[in-house]
Design a protein that fits this description.
Blueprint: E1 7-12, H1 18-29, E2 33-34, H2 37-46, H3 50-59, H4 62-70, H5 89-106, E3 109-112, H6 116-119, E4 126-132, H7 135-146, H8 150-171, E5 185-188, H9 189-209
Parallel strand pairs: 1-3, 1-4, 2-3, 4-5
Helix pairs in contact: 1-9, 2-5, 4-8, 7-8
Length: 213
């Protein structure tokens, strides 16, 4: 019998190495991983510009999130080509959600961020993972990767983690991005490292999904 496709979702703190884990697993398992590429796929699927999707990511700050949550009961209609001037940020998220659900139906893959763990929470072929590390580990990683001072790295870490928390809260009806009960597996890369974290994810795939990896 043909093996059912599986999906690994990875939520991660900035600097914790979650994207590196996705890249390594992608190479080892021979399956694609999607992060910012999700914007490209949603754009291609809808005919809307990538810039629209990117703009939503940039604007999710402070009171803007509050306004989105306040208007959660907005229309669920998908925009037609004629209605693109009236596209809402919520509908742009729904387009990304549609792509994520299609991927979960059709192929084995890894999806980084984008509330994928929440969107696919009721699917039996999904392993959801949260990756975090202590502050010093994250700061060291950011400084080395981006050639920043400690102060710059701290500022960026705080800003991006707040953005990710706001994004998750906005599109999961108030969910807490760092809540461990949202995930099947939570990993501390500061203690485990990237290689061991990848091996634990592979073991979890075998145990939960029966995947031959």
């Amino acid at each position: 019998m043909e093996q059912k496709n599986f999906v690994i979702t990875i939520a991660r703190g900035y600097g914790s190495g979650g994207r590196r884990i996705a890249q390594k697993l992608s190479e080892e398992l021979g399956i694609p991983f999607y992060d910012r590429k999700m914007i490209v796929l949603a754009s291609q699927d809808s005919g809307l510009s990538e810039e629209l999707f990117a703009r939503v990511d940039e604007r999710l700050r402070g009171s803007y999130v509050t306004n989105i949550l306040r208007n959660w009961a907005a229309s669920t209609a998908m925009p037609s080509p004629e209605e693109r001037a009236f596209v809402s940020d919520l509908n742009l998220f729904r387009l990304q959600k549609k792509v994520i659900e299609h991927l979960a139906d059709s192929e084995s893959c890894i999806i980084v961020g984008r509330c994928a763990d929440y969107i696919l929470r009721d699917r039996s072929n999904v392993l959801s993972v949260y990756v975090e590390a202590d502050r010093e580990y994250c700061l060291k990683s950011i400084k080395l990767r981006e050639d920043l001072s400690r102060e710059e790295a701290e500022e960026k870490l705080i800003s991006i983690d707040k953005h990710r928390a706001d994004y998750y809260k906005c599109y999961t009806e108030g969910g807490n991005w760092t809540n461990p009960v949202n995930y099947d597996l939570t990993l501390n890369t500061g203690r485990l490292g990237i290689d061991t974290s990848c091996e634990l994810i592979r073991q979890a795939l075998r145990l939960k999904l029966g995947a031959e990896v």
